[in-house]
Structure formats: structure tokens, C-alpha cells
Amino acid sequence: MPSTLIRTARVIFFISLFYFVSCDREKMADIPQIKIHRFDLDLKDFDTTNFEEAEKKMIRKYGDIYTFYIEKLMGLGSLQPNHQYYYKPHLKNFLQEEYPAIMDTFDKYITNDISRIEDELTMSYGRLCAEFPEKKPSTVYSFFISPMGANPASAFTYGQDTVGFNWFNYLGKSFPLYAPLYEGYSYMIEWNQQDYINRNIMLVEYRLLQEKNGSKEEYSELIYNMIEKGKEFYFLDKVCPKMKSETKIGYTDKQYKWCEENEFEIWAHLKENKVLYSTETMDMKRMTEPGPTTPGMPGESPGMVGAWVGWQIVKTYQLKANKSLKDLMQTSPKEILKNANYKPTK
After folding, report:
1. HSE toward the beta carbon, residue 54, CA cutoff 13 A
2. What angle do CA 99, 104, 107 make, to 5 degrees?
3. How many CA atoms lie within 13 A of 201 on its CB side?
4. How far is CA 81 from CA 55, 316, 321, in A?
5. How far apart are CA 205 and CA 246, in angstroms?
6. What residue spans define the domains of the chain?
7. Within 13 A of 36's CA, how many CA atoms are on the CB side?
8. Residues 39, 40, 45, 49, CA torsion sign
């Protein structure tokens, strides 16, 4: 190739590279590095022999978050000393007996570098805030919540600008207590990995945004609810682009591959059995809620196959519409279904 052509090819390559890098940067808002506020570590240092001073120290640092943890997340009672269920004796017992054992598991089972999780959150919040300029990154807190607590959720919100997550839900598939804890629900153990922290926090943010920006119409038909679930996973496509698709929906690699290989048959099954426009509550649960498998589908199928199909419909629609996330959230599932013209091939 003549040298002038080589130089021209190089120029085109670097212009193209610059263009794609610039486009990617345009999707990122300039936000501060996300730091996880380690409530769990400060609670570990709570001096139960000097209870009132330790309490004041936690309230000074965490304010209402301390009350939220005690009363709502753990259900240990009230902070009011004259209350019938004053929390002091219950917290002391928890910190002296169960909590040390919980915290001892941290170094053994939390294998990811905390800074890596913070970097993932920073990237996701940067993309989220670029899509929703009015949105500011939430303050993120980490807790250890007993599985016997009042609200042992994996991720949750406190108000509109604070999210928290429970380390107990991310100790990894090898953590021995999960097997008896999830007896009869062993498929849920797959989700107890640190790779799910960013995913679950972003889904909390999605639901907060949905309250403000989501479609106000309600639909009872299965297909429209499938598409609404599909919007959640498409949201993760945009704010967590490096995350595996399997993690976004909570499948193993084998389960996700099964859906890809059987996409045509899944869609044909839904149409032939005339369930797409079903308004039956059980059809909704079978097709859009997690489970070991999807009832009515082959045994190899994962749960909520209908939600996976809804995701594919949204992706097909977006290839043509290319709407912003905000506009997509406000788009009715009827419009998405009509204009996606979703037709999987064998």
C-alpha cells in the first residue's frame, strides 16, 4: 500500500477512535468518586460498656440512618428510652453475640476490593446522571443486617437520595449458611455475589426514577407487563454497559444461553397458548417473577422467561427508536410492542 494511503488510513482510524471515545464520554456526567459509607464497620466498634456515648457518636455521624437501621432494618425496638420496646438491651445482645460472628465472615467471603465496587458505582452513576441531569448521585451506605432482621433486603432506599445494601446478601455462592437459609429456593444463591451490588443499587435507582418518569398508565395484560420488566434490564444495559447480561437478569451462563437458543420457540409458545394478553395473576407471576424455572416451559428454562422476552422486545424497539432512557421510561408498552415488530427467527 502506498505511504499516502497508509497515512490516510491511520488518520481515519484515529478520527474514528476519537469519535467513539468522545461519544462514550458524552454519556458520562462529571461526578465525584462514589465512596461507600461503612456503617457496618462503625457499628462493629460500638462500645456496649459505654452505651450512651457510643450511641451519641453513631447519631452524630449517621443521624436518621442510625434510627432507620435500628428500627426499620433490624427491628430492634425504639430509640425512645421510655418506650415499651426500648432497643438498648436488644442491640447489646446483637452486638455481643451475633454481630461479631457476622463481621468475622467479611474478610473471608467479601473477596472483591471495595474500591472496585466503588469504581463500578461511580461509572454507573456517571451514566445515570448523564441520562437524567436533574439526578444527583445517591449517598451509599453498607450494612450487615441479620437474616432474622425486619428487612434483610439486598439493596434498598432511604428517601430519594440515599441507598443502602446488606453485605450478608453478597457473601458468595460458597457461603455455608445460604443452603439452609434458602432451602427450597436454592436458585436464589446465584444472586448472592458481589457482582450484584452495583446491579441491585441501580435497580433501586430505576424504581425511584420510575416514580417520577415512568408511564402513568397501568396494564393488566401479561405482554405489557413483560415489556415494563424489560425496561428495567435495558436501563441496566445503559448504566452498566460492562456488566454481563446474565448478571443483569440474574441468570447463570447456561440459563441465559438457553433463552438465546430458544428465543423463537419461547415466543411461539406464548402466542400459541394465547397467554400474551392474559390478565390472570398466576400467568403474570409465572412469566415475570423469579423462580427456579418458568412453569409451562421445559425444565431447563430459567425463571421469568417472560421478562427476558420483554427485554428483547425493548432492545428491538430501541434499535429503531433510539430514545433517551427518560423518554423510553415514559413510552407506553403498547407503543413499544407495536413499533418493535418483534419477530425472532429460528
Report:
1. 14
2. 135
3. 31
4. 12, 58, 58
5. 20
6. 36-204, 216-340
7. 23
8. positive
Do the beta carbons of residue 194 and residue 171 sit within 8 Å?
no
- Per-block average pLDDT, block size 10, for the chain (346 residues)? 41 39 60 96 96 97 96 95 95 93 85 90 97 95 86 89 95 91 90 96 96 82 97 98 96 96 96 95 95 93 97 98 95 96 92
Is 240:198 a contact under the CB 8 Å cutoff?
yes
CA-nearest of 313, 344, 338, 127 to 228 is 313
CB 294 within 8 A of CB 306: yes
3-state secondary structure 112-143: CCHHHHHHHHHHHHHHHHHHCCCCCCCEEEEE
Residue 87 to residue 73: CA distance in whole angstroms = 13
The CA distance from 170 to 172, in Å, is 6
Which residue do the cell numbers 455481643 mark?
96
Tell me which residue has cell 456503617.
39
Contacts of 339 (CB under 8 A, 6+ apart): 317, 320, 321
Distance (Å, whole) CA 68 – CA 83 = 16
Cβ-based neighbour number of residue 304 at 10 Å = 23
The distance between the two most distant Cα atoms of the chain, rounded to a whole number of Å, is 89
